[in-house]
């Protein structure tokens, strides 16, 4: 509870102080804020929380600003300081300005000179207050790689002299797209990861929702809302997606009563707002797809025809191997065997890392329908070799046994 | 309640040869003052003005004079302002007791903000 409260405040403090002292001093700022939070967490474990934690933290943040002044100004950056400039610094700690600083930080982190993965690691560290260890655990990479990634990110920010601001005009359009992508990936890291820690998954998902909420509050863009809808629909299935013994359960086999009704409702509300536009984005179609899967009472009752339309629209915007594979699954569900086969054949397996087993499984089903059991067996064997998930593995084994020889 | 503007003039930090510690201490005082007014619910807003600017005077044409503000005596320069809610000038005078820069030659000018809506 305490840790979470502070996690949300961490980014606020870092972004406000960065607003004052500049991104070049980020290391100093982060050290100071980390130190503050560590002490606060320790203190409040043994003492009562203050009545107004945010107000308390704001006072602490201002004290940090004062402490930092000497460290930062020793590099002679503050020759032109005057007493009244502190009036402006005070303003930085008002609600509206804190929100503004957070957005600046988010847009700085998502500068196109940074790799997508680096952006996420950088955001988790600087914005969300995850420790290196927590990031390593959440993204299932080594701490050493986290360190390298953060170093790379900072170097790129310095090299490109990225300004601590929300860009405007054409640059805004580009940057908001990369902010959306980073949030999307962050969400996926939480939702699709094979990480066994349910708590970590929830943390990542919550962060993605929080960041996207910040965007919606400020910019009110349909694509942010569509992404919010999609994330709600997916997140609604999180509990049903993981079995008691920590295995991933595929949509087909999930207990639908375990889905979170509140989140589904929220997803629909966001979707209603998101479609008030003439231009649908990938997030609109992905939200429509996620929502359609959830609408059906049972897997068998899924409206495949609608899903086919949504996927075809999505592919027009985003012709990825993964999207083609999904389309093939849906075509096959509708008995459009030839089309499904043609779609599969158009996919370059190189681009399907981690999902090859699904590719082979769909192929197997198609051959099965065509009564070509030898080829079906061959495909299932390939699928078996490519699959990692235990429950999926046993399903494929079952299908192999059920095949008529 | 009326609104008053406290206008801060002078207080030359650059020529006072302040150490980093001394500036830091003043920063603490400014923050404390701002917090005090904020908590009392009387603070309306405030801005700081960057040093250096232009002053323009004279009729259009030959008489028009544009002066760089650094050429103007620093005592005359407005560094910034706070707007506060108060009952009277006397109350604002009390508020200014916490102004941190009197010792640097800083001056506070208090002016009532005219509000036609009331």
Automatic annotation (TrEMBL), chain B:
Residues 18-116 form the YCII-related domain. SUPFAM superfamilies: Dimeric alpha+beta barrel. It holds the Pfam family YCII. Belongs to the YciI family. PANTHER family: BLL7171 PROTEIN (PTHR35174:SF3), BLL7171 PROTEIN-RELATED (PTHR35174). This is YCII-related domain-containing protein. It comes from Portibacter lacus.
